[in-house]
Amino acid sequence: MWTCPHCERNFKTTNQSHSCTNIDMGELFLDKPDELVLAFDDILMGVAAWEPSTVGTAKHAIVFTSKKAWLIIKPMKQALDVKFYNDTPLESRKLKKVTASMGKYAHHIRLHSPDQIDEEVFRLLRIGFEFSLA
Q: Which CATH number belongs to the domain containing residue 93 in this structure?
């Protein structure tokens, strides 16, 4: 793992190309509904014990990294776009879309409130986390 000395994000590859940003996580939630903050907090608490994993901010998202980025949460106007990867497409009523991307599949969950977060969401996120360790 390499940590960028400027933005302190973790990357798999030394000197990996990225856009440095020192945005505070709270800034990503400015002018967003409180329900999105609560939903994010529930996800953060639910995956906190999964190691190795670090959390950092990108220009418009919060990025969770183990050996590689495994979870990207983008606070949107009325929802959190929760994206994770796997080597095969998954099926779940929780998934809004699944797209092929560079030999893997990006899975998106859209959350509007914490009451949408359940065991199924964490089961899917765990698949993405395990995939990141391979």
A: 3.30.1460
